[in-house]
């Protein structure tokens, strides 16, 4: 009689395992019998980059080369004005950090 109880347990566990595998296949779950951590939960989530991008309005200025050229021209003229007053950016290697190093 002791042998038949072991056989029942063996058959019961096999049936449970088969049902679990079938359930996973039907519902698209990932089987993890070892119980180790898996990134599947994160990979399963929907991507939300598009939704975030929709919050920000589309910038028409980037499409128009005339607008971009005008902005660049304004930037250069402002930079030139600052340089004439001696307030422009220093040449490469002439900045505050370079001056500290040379002391």
Work out the helix count. Answer: 5
Mean pLDDT, nearest integer?
A: 86
The backbone outline, from C-alpha atoms, is elongated
Radius of gyration: 34 Å
Total strands: 0
Please write the string of helix (H) and strand (E) elements. Answer: HHHHH
Termini separation? 95 Å
Give helix % range: 55-70%
Describe the largest sheet.
Answer: none
Residue runs with pLDDT of under 50 for 5 or more positions = none
- Per DSSP, what share of the residues sits in E-state strands of 2 or more residues? under 5%
Structural class by SSE content: mainly alpha
How are the elements arranged and paired?
Layout: H1 2-27, H2 40-44, H3 49-55, H4 65-84, H5 96-102
Biased composition (Basic residues): 84-103
Family: Belongs to the mitochondrion-specific ribosomal protein mS33 family.
Keywords: Mitochondrion, Ribonucleoprotein, Ribosomal protein
Can you describe what's shown?
With 103 residues, the chain is mainly α. It is built from five helices and no strands. 0% of the residues are buried.
Keywords:
mainly alpha; 63% helix
Provide a quick synopsis of the model:
This protein has 103 residues and is mostly helical. It has five helices and no strands. It has helices at residues 2-27, 40-44, 49-55, 65-84, 96-102.
